[in-house]
């Protein structure tokens, strides 16, 4: 099983930008922790970050047939990108949406996620630990898929 982690705009600035909102951990720190969890679980993991909507859409599409699940922090595109939403819907993979801050406690324009309705789950407001929660969630989804496959093979 393989997970693709997609980070949206400005996530590469974690640890430097708006520390009161996003904390001091860098994107690289988060990725190191996620890799440790993946290694322990025997799951492959790769990381991608872009500030460009089209590159994120391309990466989601490239996951089809190559990855078993996606963890995405679409960042500001959460509230604006029908293209990212459509790409997620088109690949048919389990996708977990992560936000470091609680988008529902912030400006009103951040309260609506265009992405969440096409995702398997949505994690917001737990800080960088939200990525760890997403890893646990994705591993659980993988386990459910394995059990369903085994049950259908037994039938």
From TrEMBL:
Active site, per annotation: 22 (proton acceptor), 99 (proton donor)
Keywords carried by this UniProt record: Amino-acid biosynthesis, Aromatic amino acid biosynthesis, Lyase
One of the GO BP terms on file: chorismate biosynthetic process
UniProt binding sites for substrate: 73, 79, 86, 100-101, 110
Reactions the enzyme catalyzes: 3-dehydroquinate = 3-dehydroshikimate + H2O
Lineage: superkingdom: Bacteria
GO MF term list: 3-dehydroquinate dehydratase activity
Site, as annotated: Transition state stabilizer: 17
Assigned EC number: 4.2.1.10
SUPFAM superfamilies assigned to the protein according to its UniProt record, in alphabetical order: Type II 3-dehydroquinate dehydratase
InterPro entries assigned: DHquinase_II, DHquinase_II_CS, DHquinase_II_sf
Pathway: Metabolic intermediate biosynthesis; chorismate biosynthesis; chorismate from D-erythrose 4-phosphate and phosphoenolpyruvate: step 3/7
Subunit structure: Homododecamer.
Family: Belongs to the type-II 3-dehydroquinase family.
Record PANTHER family: CATABOLIC 3-DEHYDROQUINASE
Function of the protein: Catalyzes a trans-dehydration via an enolate intermediate.
Record protein name field: 3-dehydroquinate dehydratase
Protein source organism: Campylobacter devanensis
